[in-house]
Amino acid sequence: MTIPPVKQFDLLCENCGYVLSGLDRDGACPECGRPIAQSLPSARTLVFGASSSVSWLSLTRELMIRPDRALPRLRIDVKAARAFGLRTNVTVAFMTALGTVTIWRVRGDERPDGVLAFISTIFAALPLMFGIALITFVGLLVMRLIALKFVRELLPLRPRKLPEAVSRVVVDHCTLAWFPGTLLLASWNTLWGAVAYARTDGLVPCFWSIGCVAIGALSLVFWAVCVVLMARRFRFANAPGAY
Ligand SMILES: [Zn+2]
Question: What tens digit of pLDDT does each residue of 90-127 get?
């Protein structure tokens, strides 16, 4: 297959990357036969945002449960992607922070006795929770910047580098890939907290730390793989303005 050189706003066949610019929109791709109408930017209708589009929860559900159906319909909309990514980052940061409450409440010298004491321990843990949420959030933003740089400039996607808009849409939607790690961490903390609470002979904290680091490393790898796979999948995606 020979692919002609690609200009910035060329319309590509989203199946094979053939340049469709100037061809009849009612026709089919000369290379693979896919109807050109299916490659038009307007064929992508799934977008997070205002009234006419889907909510964060339903887009998250679509992307996580049926990515094969959702990704080809995901619109290349930088603004919507940024808003979606931001909301996901905030959610992941707070879930990570929430997962630490159980650890806080079982610190040997502060074991709560009764419901009121338990509630007061939760409140005492709030500053710690917000601190962890903030650190996690900033960390996610840094990872986002690294991923953008990587996807735009280093990922070898032929026949061209991913356009700016497509890179942003890919990276901002891949923030969802942090969720499994967050859930795993919360489960690990809860399990550890429960075991530590039931025992009085004390547990080795470094074992807990090793678990956290392992979960962190796993999450990082999973997220990076998702970014690469999604970038590959979007290598021929057409942003609005392609003609
Ligand atoms: Zn084609």
Answer: 999 999 888 776 665 555 455 556 677 767 777 777 88
Separation of alpha carbons 129 and 66, rounded Å: 33
Cα of 30 vs centre of ligand 1, distance in Å, is 7
Rounded Cα gap, residues 137 and 34, in angstroms: 42
Show the domain range for 141: 76-233
Residue 34 inside a domain? The answer is no
User: Which residues, by Cβ under 5 Å, contact ligand 1, an ion?
Assistant: 13, 15-16, 18, 29, 31-32, 34
Pair 76, 239: CB distance under 8 Å: yes
Phi, psi of 82 (to 5 degrees): -65, -45
Count of structural domains within the chain: 1
For the chain, what percentages of helix, strand and coil (3-state, to nearest 5) are there? 65, 5, 30
Identify whether 220 is part of a domain.
yes
pLDDT digits (tens, 9 = 90+) for 51-89: 556 788 989 999 999 999 999 999 999 999 999 999 999
Q: In this structure, how many other beta carbons lie within 10 angstroms of the beta carbon of residue 71?
A: 19
